[in-house]
Amino acid sequence: MDNAIQLAREKVKNVLGELIQLHPATVPEDWLTEYSGVSDIEYMNPQSVKVRFLEYVPLSHQITYHPVQPSQVVFIGGYYVIKEEKESTYWFVGELGDSGFVDCWSRSATLKEALDVI
């Protein structure tokens, strides 16, 4: 039964990824809630969100912050999924952190990889 649920969630993530890319304003929230357990999804204005990517530097044992200019921002299941404006090949996943920034701790080459982090 757990495998069936996991398979269904994978299919939902794949479809969600296609919807975000093709029709970002038309994701059916009730469908997502019923099949994936995701009840909160919101498309946000990219200019209204401050985003930074947190990178751990092993040699100095410090975290460095890199600003990210988002072109797409989706709030889903308590996380922010962000497509970068300049580096259009990267998708970031993060949470609301200190000082009103969305602190991203994951950077992926594809949307599917980003959604798998969630």
- Helix proportion of residues, in percent? 25-40%
How big a fraction of the residues is strand?
A: 35-45%
Please, what is the average pLDDT?
A: 77
**CA-to-CA gap between the ends?**
21 Å
Q: What is the tally of helical segments?
A: 3
Uncertain segments: none
Helix and strand composition category: alpha+beta
- Rg on CA atoms, Å: 15 Å
Would you report the number of β strands?
Answer: 7
- The helix/strand series, from N terminus to C terminus, equals HHEEEEEEEH
Can you describe this structure?
By secondary structure, this protein is an alpha+beta fold. The chain has one domain. The protein has 3 helices and 7 strands; from the N terminus they run H-H-E-E-E-E-E-E-E-H. Strands 1-4-5-6-7-2-3 form a 7-stranded mixed beta sheet. Helix 1 (2-22) packs across helix 3 (111-117). The model has no long low-confidence stretch (mean pLDDT 77).
Features:
118 residues; alpha+beta; 39% strand; globular; single chain
Give a short summary of the structure.
The protein has 118 residues and is α+β, with helices and mostly antiparallel strands. Helices cover 31% and strands 39% of the residues.
Layout of strands and helices, then pairs:
Elements: H1 2-22, H2 29-36, E1 41-44, E2 50-57, E3 62-68, E4 70-76, E5 79-84, E6 91-96, E7 101-108, H3 111-117
Parallel strand pairs: 2-7
Antiparallel strand pairs: 1-4, 2-3, 4-5, 5-6, 6-7
